User: What shape does this take?
Amino acid sequence: MTERYRRSEELLDRALHTIPLGSQTFSKSKTQYPHGVSPYFIRKGKGCRVWDVDGNEYIDFVNSLAAVTLGYADPDVDGAVREQLEDGVIFSLPHPLEMQVAEKIVEMVPCAEMVRFGKNGSDATAGAVRLARAYTGRDHVAVCGYHGWQDWYIGSTSRNLGVPKAVRDLTHTFTYNDIESLHRIFRDRPGQVAAVILEPMNVERPRDGFLEKVRELAGKNGAVLIFDETITGFRFANGGAQEFFGVTPDLATFGKGLANGYPVSAVAGRGEIMRMMEEIFFSFTFGGEALSLAAALATLNKLQREPVVETLNRQGKKLLDELNLLVIQHGVGHFLRTAGCPCWSFVLFQDVPPYSLWEMKTLFLQEMFSRGILILGSHNMSYSHGEADVDRLLGSYDQILPILKDAVDNRRLKDRLRCEPLEPLFRVR
Assistant: This one.
């Protein structure tokens, strides 16, 4: 047992007796954090810092998988929640907050004319797809990117165990920035595609008018265009990636970033389509839970009042610019590159025989965690990241990149690892 992570490893052993994987979320589990060199449980967070159960402090660039945009324990958001708690959490009739948050989203998001709430991003994407199927009277869906755990989507991935083949056969993947791959789906299934759903951006930037072409192609073929803005919403711009890129979908889904970590998601879009929500069944006991809605309203108000998005981009740009210089300086470009937008960027490894990208990533995580940086390979910027925090991360890269280069180029990677390497879960982007 590793002394630095002793309590974490004890709790993981205990949790595995009652919780599959020891976590409620794959991306927070031992599948992503190599055993022996990783924390497994966080005790508290404040701003951009978290403390694990062993008392180790980290600057957090995971930010609960990009669900925390402002920072942990944001005083405005948590203050609104405490105030609402005095009045109650859930009621026998709707609370006015439902209407107030819906109005705020309509005010901020270009496509939004009406709004319905869920609790997770998966609720919202599944609801949007059901809505599109009801509106069009069609069954097939074209997908690009990651859209949650439910059958309609996860059946199209390698994690499709338990999803009926009849459901899997209705979902078809296309490739980002390859408009021909979407053309092919429409050609093969004329008049059958209900929806095109994609993350408007993740790792790659749209090229050659890709989003505009998707918008045109979906409309031409009578399919509903859905932007999954679970991550890009209220991060790329106050109105999401659709505002940032100037392309308006028919529907959009939101989750992470909507309430600074409180559990709420949303489907928003054209009134003509959204009114079908009165006909389909999209209903949650906790869809109108008031604490999360109070958090959402406080978060959205803060986005409008303060330079949140501007700060995410400024700090993220500094990080990317200086990291790219370090990649060149240390000569690691043959196995490592950066991608994404400043507010949500990625460090991508590639296989260099005899090593896989997963072995390299394991060494990267081992060294980052030991230096007090919590990261999984992306930089999920928050409003609470200051200059010193970005400098600390860059300093860690400056120390770690030479270690990675020596391990790869001199075939010493296995000697450097103090744990077993990670295994791939499944590729979603």
Summary: The first strand starts at residue 42 and ends at 46. DSSP finds 16 helices and 14 strands in the chain. Residues 119 and 264 are 4 Å apart (CA to CA). The chain has a mean pLDDT of 96.
